[in-house]
Design goal:
Layout (H helix, E strand, L loop, with lengths): L16 H10 L13 E2 L2 E5 L7 H17 L6 E5 L5 H14 L4 E4 L7 H14 L5 E5 L8 E7 L8 H16 L19 E4 L1 H7 L7 H7 L2 E5 L6 H11 L2 E4 L30 H4 L7 E5 L6 E5 L2 E2 L2 H15 L8 E5 L5 H8 L4 E4 L7 H6 L2 E6 L3 E4 L13 H15 L3 H12 L3 E8 L2 H8 L2 H7 L3 E2 L2 E2 L2 E5 L6 E8 L3 E7 L5 E8 L3 H20 L2
Parallel strand pairs: 3-4, 3-5, 4-7, 8-9, 8-10, 13-14, 13-15
Antiparallel strand pairs: 1-2, 2-6, 5-6, 10-11, 11-12, 15-16, 17-23, 18-19, 20-21, 21-22, 22-23
Length: 546
């Protein structure tokens, strides 16, 4: 069997959905246990009911906290509420509705209580707020691409994007106060099914999103090209979107997998043997990769459709490479954007984005990890596009108006088709041309288990860690170490080292118990691997010395 062949999960690996939902309602978290408190990482609170980190008590508390914070901030419009296809999402949405209704908040949900991609919620918030004085906000119930047993809950304020650090701190602090008081101060609808309450209103997220797609992607050009397109929703919230998109805009598009099952048994095992709906992982995408010769272009989104995976005849594109191709195309083709619109990138996204920006006479704005940092730049038009190395991005409409201020996997997939229709080349072929023109880069990311020793090392703080780092790695001096992002002077949450022929970064994950190690060489892959090995060895040595 080829090493690239999909490895499917065994039956005994699948999550027990009834047990998972039962635990959501019956297991009570202990707020004295750090792992059972409400904690907002880079994208909201995540956990599992089986580990008492995502239970009804959490959602009661965090929704009440959202109501309290939005009231303090003067947010009086409706709240747009979406959910993905994880098993815990629907129970959590029902719990959230009970609290929202009891607090007098009008909650807009997908018509028929269907699933809603994250970008559809962000688009709805922005569209409402352009036309109404009473500002709206939103909640998306999703753990993104995390395994089937997980649940997630994130808040999007009136800016439409992920809440900033101050808002998430206030929400988490208030939610944990409520948890410690056994949710005694949580207001909860007590008249039966909150879905039937007059404050709960059905809204056609899908119809409005699809109707306006041509404002942000050149849909007529894709249709005229006749490209054969394949789309894999990976069992997520975009499943209901692809066929209506194809029908409305006349695309030759086939949904390769229409399965909808909260065990996600149809997703091949990831690199670590887990079921993870990660559209940037070659292992998890092995199912779609088997179709790569059946289409001119294929693509996938994760369960809440805020990430993208692009498959060409050459295979699954590295997210950094596709983002570079997308940025170059957008800067060249969007004449309605502000002339100064920059490319936004996180500190751990490929330096190729900086080269692309420079070649177009634009700047690159570098921010910490987390799409929330792009929100003000997108709203102001200072960034035409925001890019994350983990296959997340969004960009302005043709007229320079924000489309979403959260990641949008659907438009990134469709943009790949627009690029191919415009150039006659796949994004992979265009990247190969770009590397010859702008110079090579070799990029990699390694997830190290976050041991207790590594936790203690990061607990000392970025500055202390920076001072402990060796001044030379893989035979090359470290010229500069950053602990704040150059684009907005915000803390990185780790550090980034700059070298003449490379850069590296280390940071603890905000959602998983791992330390993320990033390396990029401007020489070749061999040089990058040597740098990565030296960096891992240095981190292990520092951790052992504590």
């Amino acid at each position: 069997m080829s090493s690239d062949a999909p490895i499917w999960p065994a039956l005994d690996m699948l999550v027990d959905v009834p047990a998972l939902i039962d635990a959501y309602y019956t297991q009570t978290p202990d707020p004295d246990e750090p792992g059972q408190r409400v904690s907002f990482g880079t994208s909201g609170h995540r956990g599992s009911s089986l580990s008492r980190s995502f239970n009804e008590a959490h959602i009661l508390a965090v929704t009440q906290a959202v109501c309290d914070v939005r009231r303090e901030c003067g947010v009086t419009g409706p709240l747009f509420l979406g959910m993905d296809t994880h098993a815990l999402s629907r129970p959590a949405l029902d719990t959230a509705l009970e609290v929202l209704v009891a607090n007098g908040v009008a909650a807009y949900v997908q018509t028929g209580f269907g699933f809603t991609p994250t970008p559809a919620v962000s688009r709805a918030i922005l569209a409402w707020n352009r036309e109404h004085e009473a500002q709206a906000d939103g909640i998306v119930v999703t753990p993104s691409h995390n395994p089937p047993a997980d649940g997630g809950f994130k808040y999007n304020p009136p800016t439409g994007g992920p809440a900033d650090a101050d808002a998430t701190r206030r929400i988490a602090t208030r939610a944990n106060e409520l948890l410690r008081a056994k949710n005694a101060d949580v207001r909860r609808y007590a008249k039966g099914d909150a879905r039937r309450a007059s404050l709960v209103r059905e809204y056609d997220f899908m119809g409005e999103y699809i109707r306006e797609l041509a404002l942000v992607v050149d849909m007529p050009r894709i249709a005229a090209s006749g490209l054969r397109l394949g789309a894999d929703p990976l069992g997520g919230a975009s499943l209901a979107y692809w066929e209506p998109i194809a029908a409305r805009y006349g695309l030759d598009l086939t949904v390769t997998n229409s399965a909808l099952d909260p065990t996600f048994r149809f997703i091949p095992l990831d690199y670590d043997g887990a079921i993870r709906m990660d559209c940037s992982s070659p292992k998890a995408m092995a199912g779609l990769l088997a179709y790569k010769d059946s289409f001119d272009l294929a693509f996938a989104c994760d369960p809440d459709a805020d990430r993208h995976g692009i498959v060409t005849a050459q295979g699954l594109m590295n997210p950094n490479q596709y983002l570079a191709v997308a940025a170059r195309h957008l800067l060249a083709s969007r004449s309605g954007w502000p002339a100064c619109a920059a490319v936004g990138k996180t500190v751990v996204t490929s330096a190729m984005l900086e080269r692309v920006a420079r070649s177009a006479g634009r700047n690159a704005i570098e921010v910490p990890v987390g799409f929330k940092w792009f929100v003000p730049f997108l709203l102001e038009g200072a960034c035409g596009m925001g890019c994350e190395e983990s296959a997340g991005a969004s960009f302005l409409r043709f007229d320079g108006v924000p489309w979403t201020t959260d990641k949008d996997g659907l438009i990134m997939c469709l943009l790949a088709a627009e690029i191919m229709a415009a150039t006659g080349k796949s994004p992979a072929e265009l990247y190969a041309d770009m590397a010859l023109e702008l110079g090579p880069v070799a990029y990699g990311r390694l997830d190290m288990p976050l041991s207790d020793a590594l936790r203690r090392l990061f607990a000392e703080g970025p500055q202390a860690l920076a001072q402990r780092m060796p001044g030379n790695l893989a035979g090359e001096p470290v010229a500069r170490v950053l602990t704040k992002a150059p684009g907005n002077d915000a803390p990185i949450g780790g550090l980034k080292g700059l070298m003449q022929n490379a850069w590296f970064a280390v940071r603890p994950s905000g959602t998983e118990p791992v330390c993320k190690v990033y390396t990029e060489s401007f020489v070749d892959e061999s040089h990058r691997r040597a740098l990565q090995d030296a960096l891992v060895e240095a981190l292990a040595s520092l951790a052992a010395s504590l």
